Amino acid sequence: MKSLEPDLLEAARALASFAGSDLTGRISSLEASFAGANAASIQRDLTDSKVSHDLLAAAYVMKQVAGQINVVIHAIGILMCLPHVLEPGEHILSLSLGAGNTGRAFDLETDRRIAEFKFIHWQGGAETIRQNSLFKDLYQMIEHPTEKQKVMYVLGTHYPLKFLNSRRALSSVMSRNRKLWDGFVAKYSNRLSTIGDYYALKKTEVSLVDVSSFVPGLTSLASTENSQEL
């Protein structure tokens, strides 16, 4: 099987050559160059501008890789955190580094703890999707029957705690996950109505730990993403 590495490197070089140091300026230049072009001259103009099928293919290669970058950051971030979060003598039983359903309940399970890693760069505004994702993982970990320590590793605790102590309705947080909501109602009925109600009841069962100081690079990397959850 042919290695993808040369293709990726060639694609990066081709796109870098095309874009130069100012992609906006390059696009503007192309717009000006092609103004007035006709069917007879367009192919020559394409050649002169180094616009080709190979360049388009290079862009697709890079797009495919870029679509997986959050998974890469998540996996590397967890691995870089491990030396800082594991206690002496603690042993890893399972790791889930990829995205989606990997068949493992949690990102990390050791002989002493279960844990989730949420490398979210909180913006401080309305972040319902991120809040929903955080609560889902936190709730499932809290409700998991185990005597092990339960830990949620995050980038900064200010905004997660602000959300967890908020008056946002639990029905809103779980509105897009019917299975999660049905399970919650079956267990708690109408006794709890807000995120703050649930967290006040359960916060002693889980620890929120800031990993920013462990792997400072995570903060700068996460700050470049706008809507993706890591």
From the structure provided, what is the oligomeric state, counting identical versus distinct chains? single chain
The proportion of residues in beta strands is 5-15%
Biggest pleated sheet: 5 strands, mixed
**Using DSSP, what is the number of strands?**
5
Structural class: alpha/beta
Strands side by side in the biggest sheet? 1-2-3-4-5
Number of helices: 11
What count of structural domains?
A: 2
Rg (C-alpha, Å): 24 Å
Give the end-to-end Cα distance, rounded to a whole number of Å.
Answer: 31 Å
Helix content: 40-55%
Mean pLDDT: 88
Could you please describe the fold and organization of this structure?
The chain has 230 residues and is α/β, with parallel strands linked by helices. The protein folds into two domains: 5-66, no CATH class; 69-222, no CATH class. The protein has helices at residues 5-19, 23-34, 42-48, 53-66, 69-85, 128-143, 158-164, 170-173, 178-188, 195-202, 217-222, and strands at residues 92-95, 108-110, 113-118, 149-154, 207-210. The protein has a five-stranded mixed sheet with strand order 1-2-3-4-5, covered by helices on one side. A hairpin with a 2-residue loop joins strand 2 and strand 3 (113-118). Helix 1 packs across helix 4 (53-66). It is elongated and about 75 Å long. The model is unreliable at 222-228 (pLDDT under 50).
